[in-house]
Amino acid sequence: MNSPFIFEVAALLRGSALPVLLTQSGPSPTRIGPEMIAIPEGGKVVVEAQIIPLGGGLAVEADVEAQLVGQCSRCLRELTPTKSLHVSEVFSADPDFITGEDAPDDIDELPVVNNDKIDLLQSVLDEAGMSLPFNPVCAQLGYGACENDDVPAPDGESEESEGEEKVDPRWAGLEKFL
């Protein structure tokens, strides 16, 4: 299976000084995202990347579009929104690309060009972990209100009187143990 996150960059490393816009699509090689909502393994992914030669490295600005699959953490409704993630990454093609006499010792290691290819997968995994919701809800992803009206609103969002407390139907069966 070819990963849509791997780009061939040999021509850019050996002469081109102009940015190149490349688009690739294919199945995701792994699940990408938090537990409740993610790009599923094998889900279609479209990657549009602008790759800019930097001499001993490459700068990449990429937009990744895919359909997410998950559940609302409040009403457990199936959610399948299309989401776009943006990643920016610099790849080193030369071991001395960033390092040198004046380079700080605590500098983070850059991803490297390996066999004239770059792999954006780790950058996409990091971006998904930072930007996708850990506890998605219907309204947050454009689905409107939750399907099940019996599910109480999250703390701090309800204007119900304090005397009326709705029992969350997902936990109603536990009352017999109290």
Give me a quick take on this structure.
The chain has 178 residues and is mainly beta.
Which labels suit this protein?
4-stranded antiparallel beta sheet; mainly beta; 8% helix; 178 residues; 30% strand
Polypeptide structure, described:
GO terms for molecular function: DNA binding. Residues 149-178 are annotated as: Disordered. Residues 149-163 have a biased composition (Acidic residues). With 178 residues, the protein is mainly beta. Helices cover 8% and strands 30% of the residues. A hairpin with a 3-residue loop joins β4 (44-53) and β5. The chain has one domain. The strands form 3 sheets. Strands 2-4-5-8 form a 4-stranded antiparallel beta sheet. A 3-stranded antiparallel beta sheet has the order 3-6-7, with no helix packed on it.
Report the structural category: mainly beta
- From the alpha carbons, calculate the radius of gyration and give it in angstroms: 22 Å
Low-confidence stretches: none
> What is the overall number of helices?
2
What integer is the average pLDDT? Answer: 83
- SSE topology string: EHEEEEEEEEH
Strand content: 25-35%
Query: Strand order within the widest sheet?
Result: 2-4-5-8
Number of domains: 1
The tally of strands reads 9
Architecture blueprint of SSEs:
Layout: E1 6-8, H1 10-13, E2 20-27, E3 37-38, E4 44-53, E5 57-67, E6 69-71, E7 78-79, E8 82-92, E9 117-119, H2 121-131
Antiparallel strand pairs: 1-9, 2-4, 3-6, 4-5, 5-8, 6-7
